[in-house]
Write a structure and sequence with these properties.
1 helix, 99 residues, alpha+beta, single chain, five-stranded antiparallel sheet, 5 strands
Length: 99
């Protein structure tokens, strides 16, 4: 009986954290211009590709990618800005979105 109660409390906690995280963040789709595409050779594993984009007058480095992005410098792309309470904004490339 005690093990079952611990299981139920654990499931309720996971569902609660998921719901809170989903409700406390905001996602905004923004147009951006690719400023730089940089390859860094990792000591373990393959290369990682870093995209630097300009959103308005601010330059932002997106999350590293394991494959070379199919864009060139100067191309317009869509970027998702993820804003969470108490944390810095996170920027993700949205390759299938239109801005």
């Amino acid at each position: 009986m005690k093990n079952r109660m611990i299981l139920y409390v654990g499931i309720a906690l996971i569902v609660g954290l998921y719901t809170y995280g989903r409700n406390s963040r905001t996602e905004i789709l923004l147009p951006a211009t690719v400023v730089n595409i940089d390859s860094q050779i990792a000591e373990k594993g393959g290369d990682t590709w870093h995209l630097t984009v300009a959103i308005d007058a601010t330059e932002v480095v997106l999350e590293p990618r394991l494959s070379r992005p199919d864009v060139s410098e100067g191309d317009r792309i869509c970027v998702t800005e993820v804003v969470r309470e108490g944390q810095p904004s996170e920027y993700l490339w949205a390759p299938n979105a239109t801005c």
